[in-house]
Amino acid sequence: MTKTVLVTGGAGYVGSHCCKAFAQAGWKVVTLDNLSRGWRDAVRWGPLIECDIRDEERVRGAFNLYKPDLVAHFAAFAYVGESVSDPALYYINNTSGTLALLESMRATGCGHLLFSSTCASYGIPKAVPIDEKHPQAPINPYGWSKMIIERMLEDYCRAYGLASVSLRYFNAAGCDPEGEIGECHEPETHAIPLVIEAARNPDRPFQVFGTDFPTPDGTAIRDYTHVSDLARAHLLAGEMLLAEGGTHIFNLGTGHGISVFELIEAVKRVARRPPAIRHGARREGDPPVLVASYERAKRELGWTPRHSQIDFIVETALRWRVYYTPR
Length: 327
Known about the structure:
With about 325 residues, the protein is α/β, with parallel strands linked by helices. It is built from 10 helices and 14 strands. It has helices spanning about 15-25, 55-65, 80-85, 85-110, 140-160, 190-200, 225-245, 260-270, 295-300, 310-325, and strands at about 5-10, 30, 50, 70-75, 110-120, 165-170, 170-175, 205-210, 220, 225, 245-250, 260, 275-280, 290.
């Protein structure tokens, strides 16, 4: 019997790739998005309900109409700097919005949720690679908004039986290898699209924030995971959740870090031209190294990253940027 997933924020970057993964696996996909930061063109696998997750009347109507077996929840704001300058926006949209969604699920009897969480909930790491037992100590409102939601999910499971999986991403990267969907942000803050743009347009150099980190080449190290690998993890987690219930948390990363200079070299190799760069000071609160341990996901979900080699990530991102990005 065909299962149905309702994807909040399914017109966004990671959400749209997950929609494709569920559809290819035979699920019926319903996207719910207010399009404030998503793209109508990214909704290609099933109907779009254009509304905010805080609009409980319309959200509950969608649940009653489509009767989803599972909710995959991506609807959130995700700019760290914006969360510092306007924390109310993040607590209202991310945290209160999720509370409204949970109440809509309770009211309509939908009991399974996948939550798009973040490594930002760990704050400055005490040790790397970071596993799920690492203390959570966010250093910005974005990280706090996600961490609070994780606690809400634990409480809702204990009190109401809501089953959930929280997936803590490190650095989502790359684009659909088939070019159907990709990465579009306004403004763009992610490193890989910015380095690619600096290779294509020398008038828009890439800013390197800090060359004095305690790392081999002095630049910050991050764990880049191809968005298609993340999408497959959501599919595996959804299937596990329907079978087992409970509350679960998984890191999603590769276990391997790439420095900023190594990323610039990867773009140079793939694009066959050097990106224009300029150097700046470290950003406050930037950890030197963020690398995930994904052993729990490997053990319990059977998930390993298959497409997260840095050159392949850059290749898919470059192809999208050159040939497919809406203009």
